[in-house]
Amino acid sequence: MVSIFEMLDRKKVLVSDGAWGTFLVQKGLKPGECPELWNVEHPYSVADIARAYAEAGSDMVSTNSFGGTRLKLAHFGLEPRAGELNEAAARLTRETISPDKAVFASMGPTGKILMMGDVSEEDVYEAFREQALALERGGADALCVETMTALDEAAIAVRAAKQNTPLPVICTFTFDQIGEGQYRTMMGVSPADMAAEIVAAGADIIGTNCGQGPEQMVGIVEQLRAAAPDTPIMVQANAGLPVRHGDVDVFPETPERMASFVPALVKAGARIVGGCCGTTPDHIRAIAAAAKKLG
Ligand SMILES: [Zn+2]
Predict the structure, then answer these.
(1) From ligand 1's centre to the CA of 172, what distance in Å?
(2) CA 119 to ligand 1 center in whole angstroms
(3) Which of 106, 137, 173, 194 has the smallest CB count inside 10 Å?
(4) What is the pTM of this model?
(5) Are strands 102-107 and 142-148 parallel, antiparallel or unpaired?
(6) Residue 105 and residue 134 in contact, taking contact as beta carbons nearer than 8 Å
(7) Residue 156 Cα distances to 8, 105, 109, 171, 253, angstroms
(8) Chain segment 230-288, per-residue pLDDT in tens
(9) Mean pLDDT over each residue of the chain, to the nearest integer
(10) What is the Å distance from ligand 1's center to 142 Cα?
(11) Taking each helix axis from N to C terminus, what angle separates 151-164 and 191-201, rounded to the nearest 10 degrees?
């Protein structure tokens, strides 16, 4: 098993990977189709994504399990297969990338809002526990609770992962810019509040993903760093803010421009840098080259 902590000791900056959702669409995932079902029905296509990122220079590669909680899979009537689909997700990445690279397994939001009484805390805990265990069985080296906006849901996910597996847990939130140097999630959570609560819940690595381009991420990383100076920080920016072209969103940042923000992100406190929506293996290749220059 690969230790993310040992990797962090060895290298100043680790490179994670880029977008999976858009990549699956490119490979033929249709609107309304369950992405996680592809882990068993189109395993070669899913493995291709992991391979493309590993070849581009990712030190750690994710899994096709973002919507893998039973609460999300229920939209497709697939909740009885949560264990199978998540285990397959982790196994596909593990068997595709080289043994010295880490599998950081994706755990996305359930889509339910605890504050609104959509679901009970016990059901959310159980859904993340089941997903975490399955990802561990498939060979994950770390679990990544990502694209979170609500503190209660994210803290439950982190605890479910920490209390039921021995794996390191990463947790990243999605923030919007609400003013000069001010960031909040959709649910009103600031980077400082996120850092305090999520470290207290047991996360080993915290950070931010999605929602913003690399430029805004510098400010978010600074605020996370200030609130949790001893916790490694991960940042996965979008390729800029989407621009509408006809009926599709286009992410404007080129690989070169995204990579140009790596020094600033690292200076702000990031130890792991990758990409989110709109980023491709070319973006990761450019980010990896920039990270290498930093030693
Ligand atoms: Zn994203």
Answers:
(1) 11
(2) 25
(3) 137
(4) 0.97
(5) parallel
(6) no
(7) 26, 17, 11, 11, 34
(8) 999 999 999 998 888 888 888 999 999 999 999 999 999 999 999 999 999 999 999 99
(9) 97
(10) 19
(11) 30
